[in-house]
C-alpha cells in the first residue's frame, strides 16, 4: 500500500482472498480514503466498509485513469 506522497506499507499475504485483503486495508488505511485497485473480485465491498473505491481494468490495457 502506498499513501500518495506518503508512507509505504508492504506485507506478504498467504492468498488474495477478500477475507485476507480487506482486513489489512481496514487496519492500515484511514476510513474515508480513496483506495485504487484493479478489478480483482476480492476488493468488492470496500465502499460498504467506508472507502471510496476506484478500479482500473488491466485486461483492457488500463493502468491509470486521468
Protein architecture, described:
The mean pLDDT is 92. The protein has a two-stranded parallel sheet with strand order 1-2. It has 1 helix and 2 strands. It has one helix at 18-28; strands spanning 34-38, 52-56. By secondary structure, it is of the alpha+beta class.
Describe the secondary-structure layout.
Elements: H1 18-28, E1 34-38, E2 52-56
Parallel strand pairs: 1-2
Mean of pLDDT: 92
Rg from C-alpha positions?
12 Å
Number of helices: 1
**Main sheet?**
2 strands, parallel
How many strand elements?
Answer: 2
Structural class: alpha+beta
- List the helices and strands in order: HEE
Taking pLDDT < 50 over at least 5 consecutive residues as the criterion, the unreliable ranges are none
With strands numbered from the N-terminus, the spatial order across the biggest sheet is 1-2
Strand content: 15-25%
Helix content: 10-25%
**How widely separated are the two ends?**
20 Å
Describe the global form: globular
Write a compact overview of the structure shown.
The protein is of the alpha+beta class and 66 residues long. The chain contains one helix and two strands; from the N terminus they run αββ.
Provide key terms for this protein.
66 residues, alpha+beta, two-stranded parallel sheet, 1 helix, 2 strands, 17% helix, globular
Amino acid at each position: 500500500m502506498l499513501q500518495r506522497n506518503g508512507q509505504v506499507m508492504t506485507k506478504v499475504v498467504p492468498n488474495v482472498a477478500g477475507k485476507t485483503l480487506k482486513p489489512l486495508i481496514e487496519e492500515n488505511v484511514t476510513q474515508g480514503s480513496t483506495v485504487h485497485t484493479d478489478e480483482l473480485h476480492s476488493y468488492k465491498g470496500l465502499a460498504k466498509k467506508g472507502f471510496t473505491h476506484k478500479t482500473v481494468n488491466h485486461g483492457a490495457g488500463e493502468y491509470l485513469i486521468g
